[in-house]
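Posting this for the archive.
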Amino acid sequence: MLEHVTVTRYVTPLREGGSLPAIVEADNLGTYVMISATRASGPWRNPNLLVWHRNIWLIDHGASLYFHYNWPTADPKRPFDAAEHVLRARATALAGAHAALAPRVTEDLLAEVTALVPPEWFGDRGADAYVEHLLQRAPIVPEVIRP
């Protein structure tokens, strides 16, 4: 289960991004990047990236589940146009990454992962909708990403 913490100090805002990110401290003595989303964040031209100690970290992975912002039109076979993605030039081994990782996306794995998320976070459709969508999408990723 996810640990519940209370923010005790707002350290500094992170000026970039549209989801009001900030560095905060919590009651467990941890330091976190807090994202208070006000919109569907992380579009391909403005992904949620954090530079920390000269390393780039991808953050707010929930934003990559863009299909959940409009379930009535969610289609695992819908192409994704990555031509203008900020990281497109770095995505040079998509086929190899897919071959290594897609077989690991199993129904058991997705059930295990979704069980870690509070059920109310899934909305009316529930965790099963995410599992079904991702199971259909994982095998065809190279076919639906347009470079």
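The mean pLDDT is 83. Residues 102 and 139 are 6 Å apart (CA to CA).
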